[in-house]
Amino acid sequence: MSIIHLSAVGSQEPSAADLAGIEQEWPLIAAELDLLDAQIAFINAGPYASELETRRVRRASRRVLEVGRELVDREIATDGAA
Fold this sequence. Notes:
By secondary structure, this protein is an all-alpha fold. The protein is 74% helix and 0% strand. The chain has one domain. The longest helix is centred in the C-terminal third of the chain and has 31 residues, at 51-81. The mean pLDDT is 88. It has helices at 16-45, 51-81. The radius of gyration is 19 Å and the shape is flat. The chain has two helices and no strands. InterPro entries: DUF6284 (IPR046251).
């Protein structure tokens, strides 16, 4: 028996535009998931976190920023072309 009651959102499926938006943002979502994994590993290591774990967090953070910039640049280029 579940104590959490979840109501159905509806029978409406995502539109083609919704799916296209997710597809376009997927590289950023993947980069953010990698950052989350690195942060979890760093936190779990606690005071025994190695330099490798620290670098992994920094690399993942930089990757999120790079992918985010690429996504914004693509949106600006698309909006500018319209």
